[in-house]
Design a protein that fits this description.
This protein is an alpha/beta fold. The protein has 2 domains: 109 residues, Elongation Factor Tu (Ef-tu), domain 3; 168 residues, 3-Layer(aba) Sandwich (Rossmann fold), CATH 3.40.50. Strands 1, 2, 3, 4, 5, 6, 7 and 8 form an 8-stranded antiparallel sheet that branches. Strands 12-11-10-9-13-14-17 form a 7-stranded mixed sheet, with helices on both faces. Strand 9, helix 4 and strand 10 form a beta-alpha-beta unit. The longest helix has 13 residues. The radius of gyration is 18 Å and the shape is globular. The chain starts with a strand and ends in a 7-residue tail after the last strand. Bound molecules: flavin-adenine dinucleotide and FE2/S2 (inorganic) cluster (FES).
């Protein structure tokens, strides 16, 4: 069951769709980490790598507001969309308990996705390093899928870091695309002992090697990856931010981040409409 509605924000967000679709799959993929799949053919058709979607459970009044989630996978043929989430609070706790066929309200696709890395980054990069911490691997599958489909696409690497083995999801989706996956855990219970930035520093990228870094994860991890990128000869580094959001559509200004303008002066940008992907060199980190 998938009922699509016309968006009331069509003028401002020409690509925005809204709808209510049934849950077709819901299952754990790692400790406190779940996958939910729902029917949303218009979203599956329109979504691009790095876009996010707002989700709400229309049968509940709490939480009243939607929550933002990266689209992990979208299958145009079946019209199904997958989101993977970490249970941290009200919405994610309730989502993890829903039964198949529960209606889920969505609006999206939102944000500009990873498009800036091609427009303003290094379009000729031959090595893409996807640096992900915790649940921050979710916006990367569609990016990897896009590059893997290119005949002479870049080398793809996923450097993934988590606290401990039980928090590491199955990353075979990435391996199946030909992505070179490396894992680190804080306690060394699987993969290398250390962090994503340690993995990055061990890649021998000094001097550039035509590499581009795309990062997503908790802010301290993003900052460490950015510091590593700078130390490796100012490698291009783009970050997808998971700033808490209320509307997801540019209306409430609840998601602003400090951003350095062309003149080096601090300004503000809304993560939902101006991001969520930003050039790490333009963000104010502390
Ligand atoms: C563009 C974007 C993409 C995202 N993609 C994903 C994704 O793919 N998977 C995923 O699991 N999460 C993702 N997030 C984060 C997700 O939106 C939050 O985890 C979710 O809103 C929490 O809702 P809740 O009702 O369960 O938690 P709440 O009950 O609202 O909050 C519980 C606790 O979590 C904290 N919290 C809430 N939101 C955030 C946040 N964004 N960052 C840090 N702390 C927060 C609150 O301060 C509070 O302490 C994304 C966020 C953004 C902005
Ligand atoms: S979440 Fe409302 S302006 Fe970004």
């Amino acid at each position: 069951m998938a009922a699509e509605k016309k968006s009331p924000f069509e003028g401002e967000h020409p690509n925005l769709k809204t709808g209510v679709g049934s849950v077709t799959d819901s299952r754990p993929v790692a400790e406190s980490t779940w996958l939910v799949e729902f029917a949303a053919p218009e979203l599956a058709e329109a979504v691009a790598p790095g876009h996010f979607v707002m989700l709400r459970l229309p049968e509940l009044y709490s939480p009243l507001l939607g929550r933002p989630f990266a689209v992990y996978r979208a299958d145009r043929a079946s019209g199904r969309v997958q989101v993977i989430y970490l249970v941290v609070g009200n919405m994610t706790g309730r989502l993890s308990q829903i039964a198949p066929e529960t209606p889920i309200e969505w609006w999206g696709p939102l944000g500009g996705g990873w498009a800036p890395i091609e427009k303003e980054g290094n379009p000729a990069a031959r090595r893409i390093y996807m640096a992900a911490g915790g649940i921050g691997y979710t916006p990367f599958y569609m990016l990897a899928e896009k590059y893997a489909a290119l005949e002479k696409g870049p080398e793809l690497h996923l450097l993934y870091g988590a606290r401990t083995k039980s928090r590491v999801p199955n990353l075979d989706d990435f391996r199946a695309l030909g992505v070179n996956v490396k894992v680190a855990t804080d306690d060394g219970s699987t993969g290398a002992k250390g962090t994503v930035s340690d993995l990055l520093k061990a890649e021998g990228l000094e001097g550039g090697k035509n590499a581009l870094i795309a990062a997503c994860g908790p802010r301290p991890m993003l900052e460490a990856v950015f510091t590593a990128a700078k130390s490796l000869g100012s490698l291009p580094c783009w970050t997808s931010l998971e700033t808490p959001m209320s509307c997801g559509m540019g209306l409430c200004f609840g998601c602003v981040v400090e951003y350095l303008g062309e003149d080096g002066k601090a300004d503000y940008r809304r993560t939902c409409v101006d991001g969520p992907v930003f050039d790490a060199y333009r963000l104010k980190w502390n």
